């Protein structure tokens, strides 16, 4: 039987780094990320997520989740990749300490159990901030090596989760709908 929970690829719960650390990330994304115009730099926690018509429910549940959280620092220091079909690769930065993001994602999933898509990947939830795509394994590894050699780690305070939404093309750039502080 197909999943009956209404899900939308037009909404997500994410961590958005402070804008003051965006420029080095965006510099890479402008060169290598085909989706730089659709998404702001972010770490996906739940996606796809609730349809816009259910946003009021999200606010009520999120209040209960974030009241139990304490802010923490995240550092983006190490690059990684996912390999997809047809020898395509997604390049990303790993947020550290990774366990803090995994714990946050687990708490959110426990509040929104039907939205488990980010947990269904082989190996479970893998926190990451996507920075680009590359075709060809050798090419992806060479690019990762270059990016890592040139990268200076960034640290930012994580004290919010953002509910983001987008419209349909051509108005399909994600925007922040609501911010939940902890």
Output the structural class: alpha+beta
| Contiguous uncertain segments of 5+ residues | none
Query: Which geometry do the CA atoms define?
Result: globular
The total beta strand count reads 8
Helical fraction = 25-40%
The major sheet is characterized as: 4 strands, antiparallel
Major beta sheet, strand line-up: 2-1-7-8
Rg value: 16 Å
- Number of distinct helices: 4
Distance between the termini: 38 Å
Q: What percentage of amino acids are in beta strands? A: 25-35%
Mean pLDDT over the full residue set = 95
Secondary-structure element order, N to C? EHEHEEHEHEEE
Describe the protein in words:
This protein has 182 residues and is of the alpha+beta class. The protein contains four helices and eight strands; from the N terminus they run E-H-E-H-E-E-H-E-H-E-E-E. Strands 2-1-7-8 form a four-stranded antiparallel sheet, with helices on one face. A four-stranded antiparallel sheet has the order 5-4-3-6, with helices on both faces. Strand 3 and strand 4 form a beta hairpin. The longest helix is centred in the middle third of the chain and has 14 residues, at 98-111. The model has no long low-confidence stretch (mean pLDDT 95).
